Amino acid sequence: MSAAAPDLATFVNACIEHAGGLAEPIEPDLIEVLVPDALRGAFGEREMVRLALDLAPAEAHPDAEPVLPGSHLLDGLIEYAGQFGRCTRTWPQCGPVRPRSILGEILRAVTFSARRVQHSEAEAIRSVAAHAQFDFTVSLVSDEREEVLTTVVVDLWSGRPVEAFAALLPGLEVDPDGSSPAPARVRVTLEDAYTRACQALQARMAPRIERLQGLIGRRLQAETGRLELYYRSTLHDLEKRLEKAPPDRAPAFQEKIAAALFEREARLSELTTKYRLRPSARLAAVRTLIYPRLFAPVVLERRGVRREIELCWDPVVGRLLMPVCERCGAEADYLELKWDGAIVCRACTAQDEA
Asked: How far apart are alpha carbons 343 and 336 in whole angstroms?
């Protein structure tokens, strides 16, 4: 098990200190807390408590309370933090971003196909943009309960989820009190970004949910098989006894058979409910990450059709953000200007020619 994510440790310490408590590290991922009055309810009215921020210290110190996804203590801290707003701003530390030409990065990363392609050799425009980080608590409930924390980052300039940026978040150094100007390159509202984040979360979790549903289905099949075997044997025995019973005892066995059939259906219904996967997600926090980037235009022309697109070099990711096909929405390293003005990828072009 890896060490606790920096965001988890930072969040726990920030909540405790904000409420007026004190958190002292004892060893990695293990802290001792002087519990403030505002959090006494979540901590069972205790004044002092040890908290384990990872599975390893939780197993090594049975007296420590685990603060892990799905634990009642983490849920309590999230509920406390939610009283003070869920949207914050921060500024990634990406070093100085000075205007320069990004033509080399564009030529290496993307091939454009058109009658005429115009690249700008001038310095790229330095402009402030932003990402929106959405932290979700995903619950997967069936016969067991599993909760995971997952993050989706949406670029407020392009409107697309940025997996490469999300992967950098655990080690990303930020300045919570930065003074950069407000983002100028914002095309997507926070509300629209949230909708797209939900769609990306659903797509990301779909394979995991499908695998889990398959596992649960196999457990349900095994339990149903055992249940059917038991009631088949029970009903067979009752029917044999009914055949041999005197007429005055027959109604009693008929009632037992009816009761067994009713009980079997009830148990089968209970099993179906027990082993039905119920996935859900709730938004735990939102923050915008504001920093400057470099932007450069590319002009494509073909038989009276002229399109200009803007490409972006991201200093945090350290590369050009790939453009997307306007037809399928996939990132592409090859884009062609079509006769109708659409800019499409190689796969979509091949479909047109087929």
From this structure: 5
Contact residues for 22 (Cβ-Cβ < 8 A; gap 6+): 16, 33, 34
- Count of beta carbons in the 10 Å neighbourhood of residue 206: 11
- pTM listed for this prediction: 0.68
CB atoms under 10 Å from CB of 326, counted, come to: 17
- Residue whose tokens read 């115009």: 118
CA atoms of 162 and 321, how far apart (whole Å) = 9
Three-state secondary structure readout of the chain? CCCCCHHHHHHHHHHHHHCCCEEEEEECCEEEEECCHHHCCCCCCCCEEEEECCHHHHHHCCCCEECCCCCHHHHHHHHHHHCCCCEEEEEECCCCCCCCCCHHHHHHHCEEECCEEEECCCCCEEEEEEEEEEEEEEEEECCCEEEEEEEEEEECCCCCECHHHHHHHHHCCEECCCCCCCCCCCCCCHHHHHHHHHHHHHHHHHHHHHHHHHHHHHHHHHHHHHHHHHHHHHHHHHHHHHHHCCCCCHHHHHHHHHHHHHHHHHHHHHHHHHCCCEEEEEEEEEEEEEEEEEEEEEEEEECCEEEEEEEEEECCCCEEECCECCCCCCECCEEEECCCCCEECHHHHHHHHC
- Taking only the tens place, the pLDDT of each residue in 235-269 is 999 999 988 888 888 899 899 999 999 999 999 99
Measured distance CA(310)–CA(302) in Å, rounded: 18
For strand 48-52 and strand 65-66, is the pairing parallel, antiparallel, or unpaired? parallel
CATH 3.90.640 describes domain 6-85 = no
Residue 222 phi, psi (nearest 5):
-65, -45
What is the per-residue pLDDT across 211-239, written as a single tens digit (0 to 9) for each? 999 999 999 999 999 999 999 999 999 99
> Regarding beta strands 125-141 and 319-321, do their DSSP bridges make them parallel or antiparallel, or are they unpaired?
unpaired
